[in-house]
Amino acid sequence: MNPTSILALLQLALSLLVSAQTNPATTVAQKNLALSFANQAVSISANYISQINNSGVVIAPATPTATTTPIVNPAPATSTPDEIAPVTKSLFATPLGAATNRIKTNVDDLAILNLSASPAGGISLTTLRVTLSGSLASSSFGNADVKLLNSSNVAIGTLAPVTCNTGPSCVFAWSDFGSNGIISAGGTLMLKLRIDSLTNTASAGAGVSAILSAVIQSADDLTYNTAVDGSGATVGLPATAVPLVLNSVSYSPGT
Predict the structure, then answer these.
(1) pLDDT tens digits, one per residue of 156-194
(2) Could you tell me the pTM of the whole model?
(3) CA-to-CA distance for 196 and 107, rounded, in angstroms?
(4) Position 76 pLDDT exceeds 60
(5) Strand 89-95 relative to strand 108-116: parallel, antiparallel, unpaired?
(6) Hey, how many other C-beta atoms are within 10 angstroms of the C-beta on 166?
(7) Where are any strands of DSSP class E within the chain?
(8) What is the distance in angstroms between the CA of the first residue and the CA of the last residue of the chain?
(9) Domains of the chain: which residue ranges?
(10) Taking 70 as the threshold, does the pLDDT of residue 55 lie above it?
(11) Gap between the Cα atoms of 139 and 165, Å rounded
(12) What is the dihedral of CA 84, 88, 89, 90, to 10 degrees?
């Protein structure tokens, strides 16, 4: 399976589960069948994530501009990392915690993102958008319930106001990382996605598991500048790298 089919499977499972729980004509057997299908979908996606989380996503080279120098020959001794066109970047996503029967908590770490710069030159993170969808997220789920942390567990970036829509699905967008978004040549920026899965989330019915997925949906959902001072080109992920499922989980039935 590929990321697109995994996402489609999760969306189908969510649709069936929501329909079964909200339709008064649905029988108990049909509700149980929808729940079983949703749990299988979560399990399949979790297995898929575990298979790829160590391989990473290779981000294609940025197209050289007039202010950058392609690396064809060794750079002159006077060159600085900012003057060297980046050659390759990599993005690794590692899911955290249990995939099923997860416990709701105020401190629920979903995933770790590791964005690395090549030895050829540093970069700076400019934007990151993560879509959270599933029956867990209620319409009151928002900015206070989601954090993007650095390796010191300090919240970074500016989070735009968030409103969950019908589905529900919420897009959390961070920008203005400042010095916290700088990745030196050969370095790695570790980001942790943390939510409060207890306070402003929907309660599932008896025997029903709330589900949640965290996904980088499109190529421009993660962008970076090819220079640490922001003077380079701003580029995003290659189309082949998305959608990138960070984690897909289900919580203990009835919670």
Answers:
(1) 999 999 867 655 788 999 999 999 999 999 999 999 999
(2) 0.70
(3) 6
(4) no
(5) antiparallel
(6) 7
(7) 57-59, 89-95, 108-116, 123-133, 146-149, 158-159, 169-175, 182-183, 188-195, 211-216, 222-225, 234-236, 244-250
(8) 31
(9) 3-63+80-250
(10) no
(11) 7
(12) -160
